[in-house]
């Protein structure tokens, strides 16, 4: 069995629990939409202290507000003032330090989060809002060197022995490229063209250290000759790269 950690984006909501069995492609978490809302400077507009702004609000947190409706009011013979909502939405929060009111508009409220899918079939053995760890019996092979972040994608084989800058096709976008040996310029071009990651049989130590020092997120892995041949037979298949563990899940 292999333990596969899936790092979650910031502001994610996990929808599985420890002990759950999941299938490949099943939704396991959702990245929430960033609804910070429209900002209205209540305290500044009413000329009151930020911490006292809440006393002048006509709406509570979570209340619906319509465009043109009174949001806040400061009564007074000479200095009375009203704040009308310039849009419809929901009162989200009041920032105590600034006296700013946040409202999520109807347009923002329709925004959907981004689903995060399980790359393999397995069992959830750990989960929180930062990562989910799956235990899977999916086949795996070890890499000799690895750097970058975890990635999943379709394997794309380039059959040339020594791959230079001019041999990187447009088809590498959204693919994990497999090639025997890449020149430095070819790797940087692949990343620039949107490749998900790179697997090779040989990479210069100095070049590899440079990729690591630059903290390139696109994973780059080196495998031995025997495993490289096995991978060539998986051209077009979906694989998962876990550089932290030097693992390739097949």
Distinctive features:
single chain; 250 residues; mainly beta; Glucose Oxidase, domain 1; 2 domains; 5 helices; elongated
3D structure, described in words:
Helix content is 14%, strand content 40%. Helix 4 (205-213) links the parallel strand 19 and strand 20 (220-222). The chain has five helices and 22 strands. Strands 14, 15, 16, 17, 18, 19, 20, 21 and 22 form a nine-stranded mixed beta sheet that branches. The protein folds into two domains: 38-109, OB fold (Dihydrolipoamide Acetyltransferase, E2P), CATH 2.40.50; 139-250, Glucose Oxidase, domain 1. The radius of gyration is 26 Å and the shape is elongated. The chain has helices spanning 42-46, 106-109, 184-192, 205-213, 225-232, and strands at 2-7, 12-14, 21-22, 27-31, 38-41, 64-65, 70-74, 81-84, 89-95, 100-105, 114-117, 122-127, 131-136, 140-142, 145-147, 151-157, 162-163, 175-182, 197-202, 220-222, 238-242, 247-249. The protein is mostly beta strands and 250 residues long.
């Amino acid at each position: 069995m292999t333990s596969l950690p899936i790092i979650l984006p910031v502001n994610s909501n996990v929808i599985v629990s420890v002990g759950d069995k999941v299938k490949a492609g099943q939704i396991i978490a959702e990245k929430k939409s960033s609804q910070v809302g429209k900002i209205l400077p209540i305290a500044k507009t009413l000329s009151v202290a930020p911490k006292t702004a809440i006393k002048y609000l006509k709406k509570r947190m979570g209340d619906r507000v319509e465009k043109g409706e009174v949001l806040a009011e400061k009564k007074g013979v000479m200095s009375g003032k009203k704040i009308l909502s310039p849009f419809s939405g929901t009162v989200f929060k009041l920032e105590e330090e600034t006296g700013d009111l946040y409202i999520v508009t109807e347009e923002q409220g329709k925004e959907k989060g981004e689903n995060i899918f399980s790359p393999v079939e397995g069992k959830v053995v750990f989960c929180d809002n930062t990562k989910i760890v799956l235990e899977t019996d999916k086949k795996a092979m070890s890499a000799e060197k690895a750097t970058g972040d975890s990635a999943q994608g379709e394997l794309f084989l380039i059959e040339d022995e020594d791959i230079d800058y001019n041999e990187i096709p447009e088809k590498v976008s959204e693919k994990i490229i497999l090639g025997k040996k890449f020149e430095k310029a070819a790797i940087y071009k692949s990343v620039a063209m949107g490749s998900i990651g790179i697997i090779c049989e040989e990479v210069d130590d100095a070049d590899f250290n440079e990729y690591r020092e630059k903290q390139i997120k696109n994973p780059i892995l080196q495998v031995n000759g025997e495993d490289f041949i096995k991978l060539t037979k998986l051209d077009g298949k979906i694989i998962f790269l876990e550089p932290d563990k030097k693992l390739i899940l097949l």
